[in-house]
């Protein structure tokens, strides 16, 4: 026990040494400073870069002014504008005529849908009428057939119960005899398989027996424990 305590104290000392090394490393890193002349070089370089950006913005603004002036001087001739307006008017007239054509198509499609609906309603009425005629003509026949089926079911119901009882009784006798012989028996159509009963143990009772019978500990296995180290 004392040996384990000593090792735990040594582990804590190792963690303390590790923390001290990390602290010393940060102190040394903080002592490293960039020389003043290097900082001035960086500062001057950043100023030059800013001046380059300023020069390019001014040059870009001057170029945009020249281009805007050239674009303003380019004017679409009036005759082109007139021709384009004429094209727009012709397009509007064509679109209006196409709208009239589409309206005529919609009217025809609506008529088609109405006619299909009328035909479907008429068809459903005829099918319903035929179905009623079939039911009227076959009602008595189906009723007689159902009556005959019920009579047959009643007749064989008792016989099936007797057969089930015979099967149940015979199976019980077979199982009892196979159990007495202690071996499987195979027939032409059935195979009575003898399965030895599974042995189980009551764990609570076994634990109690181990107290009075130590030799039973050899049949008992217990997993290894696990240990987790945590800082206090």
Notable characteristics:
two-stranded antiparallel sheet, mainly alpha, 232 residues, 2 strands, 4 helices
Summary?
With 232 residues, the protein is mainly alpha-helical. The chain contains four helices and two strands; from the N terminus they run αααββα.
Helix content: over 70%
Which strand order spans the largest sheet, edge to edge or round the barrel?
Answer: 1-2
Our measurement of the CA-to-CA distance between the termini, rounded to an integer number of angstroms, reads 19 Å
Strand content: under 5%
Q: What structural class do you assign from the helix and strand content?
A: mainly alpha
Q: Which shape, going by the Cα principal axes?
A: flat
Q: What is the H/E order? A: HHHEEH
Main sheet specs: 2 strands, antiparallel
Q: Can you count the helices?
A: 4
Round the mean pLDDT to the nearest integer and report it: 77
Instruction: Give the number of DSSP strands.
Output: 2
The radius of gyration computed from the alpha-carbon positions, rounded to a whole number of angstroms, is 52 Å
Contiguous uncertain segments of 5+ residues: none
């Amino acid at each position: 026990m004392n040996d384990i305590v000593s090792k735990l104290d040594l582990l804590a000392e190792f963690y303390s040494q590790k923390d001290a090394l990390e602290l010393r490393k940060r102190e040394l890193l903080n002592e490293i400073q960039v020389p003043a002349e290097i900082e001035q070089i960086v500062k001057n370089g950043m100023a030059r870069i800013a001046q380059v950006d300023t020069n390019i913005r001014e040059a870009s603004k001057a170029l945009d002014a020249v281009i805007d002036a050239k674009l303003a001087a380019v004017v679409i001739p009036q005759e082109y504008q007139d021709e384009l307006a004429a094209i727009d008017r012709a397009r509007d007239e064509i679109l209006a005529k196409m709208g009239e054509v589409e309206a005529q198509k919609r009217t025809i499609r609506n008529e088609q849908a109405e006619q299909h609906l009328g035909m479907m309603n008429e068809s459903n009425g005829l099918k319903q009428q035929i179905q009623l005629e079939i039911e009227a003509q076959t009602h008595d026949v189906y009723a007689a057939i159902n009556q005959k089926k019920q009579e047959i079911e009643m007749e064989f119901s008792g016989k099936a119960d007797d057969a089930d009882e015979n099967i149940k009784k015979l199976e019980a006798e077979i199982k009892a005899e196979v159990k007495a012989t202690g071996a499987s028996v195979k027939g032409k159509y059935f195979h009575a398989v003898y399965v030895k009963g599974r042995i189980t143990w009551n764990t609570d009772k076994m634990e109690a027996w181990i107290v009075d019978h130590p030799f039973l500990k050899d049949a008992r296995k217990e997993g290894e424990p696990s240990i987790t180290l945590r800082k206090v």
